Structures are given as structure tokens and as C-alpha cells.
Amino acid sequence: MDLIVIKSPREQELMRKAGRITAEARHLAGTMVRPGISTLEIDTAVRKFIKSHGGTPSFLHYEGFPKSVCISVNEVVIHGIPSARQILREGDIVSIDVGAYVNGYHGDCAATYPCGKIDLEAQRLINVTRQSFWKGIEMARKGKRISDISHAVQQHVESNGFGVVREFVGHGVGRNMHEAPEVPNFGPAGHGPRLIPGLTIAVEPMVTAGDYEVEVLPDRWTTVTVDRSLAAHYENTILITEDGPEVLTVTGDGAYD
Ligand code: MG
Question: For the segment 111-129, what is each residue's pLDDT rounded down to a tens digit?
Fold first, then answer.
């Protein structure tokens, strides 16, 4: 088991900066979602944005991932590969996951955006996914345990009739994009490492309209619901402080998307 890395005040400041650029890149991507655009155009714009702010896209070439951003449409839960051939259509829901590596530290965040006018049920899925993140991080306080977050996320999702993905989980983040500890979105409360100030984690509920089982397509990345029901994703990088959670992936204007 990898050690959990607690960040010094200096490192926390560097992670705030990485988080801000990552959140601004996510926001830019979200503003581009519209019928007729290709997912590659969004990927290109985000890559340029991150580079122009002195960073590197965290996902580019990560374990062979070929693009800078993960763009996951409809039944794709995570790790969708942007493509010139994939054109967004009215009614799609589009999950965009962005990571930026800036001055030695990573920020990691995601959100699901509507493309034009979408079904009420699809909008409810997006809303519940986002809310479940906030329910989870209400528990992200000194002295609580990791699975207190997990349990709060699961309760909110399931009480709204949706499913929560088990196979993929949140994670510590810092000098490495994926660090200990794992942060599941399900499970009983009261387990796992204790939360202490200086811990930085990515909390990222992945929520399905139908069954929570997922499968990875033959491209070895694209992860879809087995029943092909819609999925949504919401993620922020957070810091545990003496006073509670601080969201690091926030734009200079204070927006979380
Ligand atoms: Mg993540």
C-alpha cells in the first residue's frame, strides 16, 4: 500500500494554482459543448489553454492515453477518447474530465454538461451526481474517515434511484495524478484512513441511470455502462484543512462548474 502524502503549506499553495488552471480548463470545455462540435475540437482547445498557462495536460500519454482530456458521451462513463469523428448532438450529455500538471502538482476535475436541450431525467442524473459530491465532502473533515465520504455519496445517489459505479474510484492527488488513498463512492461509513489536514484527494462520483456495472471497450479506455444507460461524472480536487474541506479546482471567479 502506498503511503499517503500530506502536503506542506507551500505544496498546498502550488496545488491551489494547479487546481485553478484545471478548473478554468474544465469551464472552457463546458462552454464549448454544443450540437455540431467534435470532441476533438474541445480537446485541442483545452490542451492549448493548459499549455498557455504553463501546464501540461495530465492525461496526455498517461499509460498511453492518446489525448489531453477525457470526453465521455451518454452511456460512456469515463475515459472517452476525443475524436474528430465524434460530433456532439442535441440531447447528449457530455462528461469532461480534465487534469493539469503545473509546477510539479496535478489538479483533477470533471463535470457533465448538457448539449442543447436534454431530457428531464438526464438533467436529474446530472444534478444528483453533482449533489452527491457535495454530500460526500460534507464528511471531508478532520477526524472523519475516507469511507464516511463514500457512504454519503452512495446514500444520496441511491436514494434518488440511481446507481453508483464500483469499479472506478476517487484517489489521492498531488505530485502524482493517482496517489493513496483510494476514495470509493460506496460502502459503509467509518472505514479507511482518517482524514487529516494537508490531505489532498479527488472525490469523483460516477453515477448511472440504470445498473452500476461498467465494461471497458476494446480500445482499452472507453468505459460504458453494461446496460448502456446514461452516466454522469462530477469531480473536484479537495484539500482537508483544520476547518473542513477546501475545493482546489475552483476558477479565479470562484466557480466550480
Ligand atoms: Mg480523478
Answer: 999 999 999 999 999 999 9
Distance (angstroms) between ligand 1 centre and the Cα of 26 equals 13
- Show me where the domains of the chain are located: 9-246
CA 107–ligand 1 middle distance (angstroms) = 9
pLDDT > 90 fraction of the chain, expressed in percent and rounded: 98
Given the candidates 3.90.1150.10, 3.90.230.10, 2.60.40.60, 3.30.1330.10, the CATH classification of the domain at 9-246 is: 3.90.230.10
Ligand 1 center–CA 204 separation, angstroms: 6
Q: Which of 178, 241, 229, 176 is nearest to 204 (CA)?
A: 178
CA of 79 to the centre of ligand 1 (A): 10
| Centroid of ligand 1 to alpha carbon of 98 (angstroms) | 9
